[in-house]
């Protein structure tokens, strides 16, 4: 198996994992959990695992002052809010719909670069913007809960775009991914726990709820992240991003098969429009690099 084939395999497995775990996480909601608690447990359970990996590899945990600022800024604003908002959206809309709306983040990356880094929007990017907006409207139903859930999912995409840009334009890009993720999950565990205590979202669950939360944590925050990073190393960011469109498709079908979620004609059209906008956007970026 050559490098490209390995990269495809790593990326496909990672995106399938990312597509399945929202459904696993939502199963805990019927056991008393919620978006904030799931986000807290997702990070807490992998803190010792990342610490073990860093120490086993003999890497230094020492950070410069600039790295500390970047980890706090990018981690809190980008990563923490992304996960809290996305997981919270599962309480109001289907996991498939939430994942598709979250996948607007490549478009938001272009918009943020345009607004703050003076990168002009091409005709293809403007076309993607119109397709994406049309796709979003296909998911919004005439209920306040659905509109609020859609808002949370779209907002998670905005903050994830900030997270990606923040990593690209900061000292984090030169850090070891394991060291960065160790500090990230440790920080998120503390911050989300405090948020959970303030909002009274930290509750007791049956043992099965904690077991399922641990599965989500290990699969997403450890295995999925590592495989996805390896996929980027083997294929490059553009091709990896195109393959990652398997994630929302997986979430939609897993939600239908295991959570009994519905798939209407409008949602199908919305899926097509959002994924088409993502595919065109990422492919056009790959052609210009």
Automatic annotation (TrEMBL):
Highest taxon of the lineage: Bacteria
Pfam families, alphabetized: EamA
Keyword Methyltransferase annotated: no
Keywords, alphabetical: Membrane, Transmembrane, Transmembrane helix
Bilayer-crossing regions: 7-24, 36-56, 76-93, 99-117, 126-142, 148-166, 178-198, 210-228, 235-259, 265-282
Signal peptide range: none
Chain ranges of the EamA domain: 7-138, 147-282
One Gene Ontology cellular component annotation held by this UniProt entry: membrane
Family, per entry: Belongs to the EamA transporter family.
Name of the molecule in the record: Threonine/homoserine efflux transporter RhtA
Species name: Longibaculum muris
Lineage: Bacteria, Bacillati, Bacillota, Erysipelotrichia, Erysipelotrichales
